[in-house]
Amino acid sequence: MDKHKETFETWNKVASVYQAKYMDLDLYNETYDFICSSVEKDKAAILEIGCGPGNITRYLLAKRPDFNILCIDFAPNMIDLAKKNNPAASFRVMDCRQISELKTKFDGIVCGFCLPYLSSPESEKLISDAAQLLNKGGLLYLSFMEGDPAKSGFQTASTGDRAYFYYHELDKLKAHLVSSAFKELKVFKVKYQRPGAEMEIHTILTATKK
After folding, report:
1. If we measure between CA atoms, which residue out of 101, 106, 77, 83 comes closest to residue 14?
2. Burial class (CB in 10 A: 0-12, 13-18, 19+), 152
3. N- to C-terminal Cα separation, the chain
4. C-alpha dist (Å) from residue 147 to 113, 138, 141, 202
5. Which CATH class is domain 3-209?
6. How many Å apart are CA 11 and CA 6, to the nearest integer?
7. β-sheet bridge partners, residue 156
8. Residue 67 CB contacts under 8 Å (≥ 6 apart), including other chains
9. pLDDT digit string (tens) for 81-136?
10. C-alpha count within 13 angstroms, C-beta hemisphere, residue 16
11. Domain limits, the chain
């Protein structure tokens, strides 16, 4: 089976499990607060890519109810959950590799842990596409795990289902952001402890469209 197809089927299948585990996780709230304070425009248009059950959007709207948020995810079951959790937002089932098809301009684009399921070329395309979709001064938020891309591969969830996981190099992503007309790059590092595993360091990278 194609790795993208298997990953898609896994995320669609485990949507409820993911919601139960991560919906109320507060580990990244500082970085979400940064989004709320950085996007100063009233009634700003925000795109959340790979929204899952809508946990990030729920936090953002609690802090900034004026945000107009469009949430996309390629898993219909995730979108169904996100709609229930965020009745004030808008939703669309969409592969993040196709965001260039969107015609709306945004003041912020949030991509929480979507890059781990995109290859390096796909991630660079997403950044380039985001640059085209953002208004001047718009914020881009990316979260991922740093590592050697050569070590990317399938990971098995607690349910026994597999998803293909990609590691990314921070310097390469930063360089592509700069070449895609972004500035004011800021990096956050968040420690995450999985049960029975070594401590992970999650990287959040933000940048502003020139």
Report:
1. 77
2. middle
3. 41
4. 14, 28, 19, 10
5. alpha beta
6. 9
7. 162
8. 39, 43, 44, 46, 60, 61
9. 999 999 999 999 999 999 999 999 999 999 999 999 999 999 999 999 999 999 99
10. 1
11. 3-209
